[in-house]
C-alpha cells in the first residue's frame, strides 16, 4: 500500500500547493506588472485618460506588492 | 607571583563599582539590554520622524484640503479628492510629466554608458590612473548652483566657450548656437550639464563593482581561451550588474526630483519646453500658492518613485541571487 502524497524521488510527503493568489512568486510578478503599467500610464504622451487613471493603478500595484511580499516563499 | 592584566582590570572594575552610588547602580542594573538599545536609537528615530515622516503625513493631509500657504489664517476646508482630480486631469501637468520622463531617460542612459566606460578604463590601472580618477570626480563635488551658473556662461552664444567649440567644429556661426534659447536645444543643454556633473558618480559605483570581481575568474577564462569580448559579456557585465543597477536607481530617484539645475539654466523655458515636474510643482506651490493642489501633485510623484523603487529592488535582489 503506498501513500498518494509521496513523490517518486522523496520519502517525505509533498506539501499541498497554495492557491495561485496566495503564492508569493506569481503574485509579486502580477504586482510588479501593475506598478510598471501605472508608471507607463503616468509618463506616456498619447492619452490623457491613461494619465488620469495612472495614480490609481500605481497605488493598487504598490499596495499589492507590499502585501504579497510578506507571503511565505 | 605575577598578576595578570585581567586581574588588574577586574580590580579596577571593582573599585569603580564601589565608588558608584548605590541608587545609580540599582537604576542601571534595572535597565534591560533592549531598553538600553532603545535609549541609544531613540534620538535618531525622533529626528527621522520630525524631518521625514511628519512632513510626508502633513503633505498627505494638506493634499485633501484647500489650504493656501499665503493665507494661513483662512479657514481650511476638506475638499476630498478634488486636488487629485485636478492634478490628474491637467494637460499642463501631463506635459511636464512627459518632459520629466524625457529628461530622466536620456540622463540615465548617457550617465550609465559613459560612467561604465570610464570605470572600465580607470580599472585598467594605467600610469597616472589615480590622477585621472580625481580629475574626473571634480564635477560631482561642485555645488549645483555653481555648475548652473558657469554652464550658463559656457552656453552664451556670443562669448561662451561651448558655442565657440561647436562653431569651430561645424562652421555654424556662434550667434546661431542658442543652447538655452532654442526650443529644440534647451532640453539637451540640461541633459548635457546633468550628464557632465553626475557621470563621475555612476563611474565611482561601477568602479567599485569592477574592483570587486576576483582576478582568478579572468585567469580561469584565459585558461579556457575565452576572448576579451567573451570575458566582458560573460564575466564583467553580469558581475558588475548589481552595482550598475544601484547607480541607475540612485540617479533615477534624484533626476525625478531635479530642480536646481533646471531652475538656474532655463527656469523651465523657453516657453515650457524644459518645465519638469518639480518646476511646475514649485510654480503651483509658491507662485499660484495652491498648497493643497501642489501637495497632491507631490504625492503623485512620490507614489511613482516609490512604486518604481519597489520594482527595482526586486530586480536587484534577483540579480544578486544569480
Automatic annotation (TrEMBL), chain A:
Record's keyword terms, sorted: Membrane, Transmembrane, Transmembrane helix
Transmembrane segments: 25-43, 49-68
The protein's name: Uncharacterized protein
From TrEMBL, chain B:
Transmembrane segments: 36-61, 103-122, 129-151, 188-210, 231-253, 295-313
Membrane topology: Multi-pass membrane protein
A GO biological process held by the record: transmembrane transport
Keywords (A to Z) from UniProt: Membrane, Transmembrane, Transmembrane helix, Transport
InterPro entries: MalF_N, MetI-like, MetI-like_sf, Sugar_ABC_transporter
Pfam families: BPD_transp_1 (PF00528)
Compartment annotation: Cell membrane
GO cellular component: plasma membrane
Stretches assigned to the ABC transmembrane type-1 domain: 97-312
Keyword Membrane (UniProt): yes
Keyword Membrane part of the UniProt annotation: yes
Highest taxon of source: Bacteria
Family: Belongs to the binding-protein-dependent transport system permease family.
Name this polypeptide is given: Carbohydrate ABC transporter membrane protein 1 (CUT1 family)
Organism: Ancylobacter aquaticus
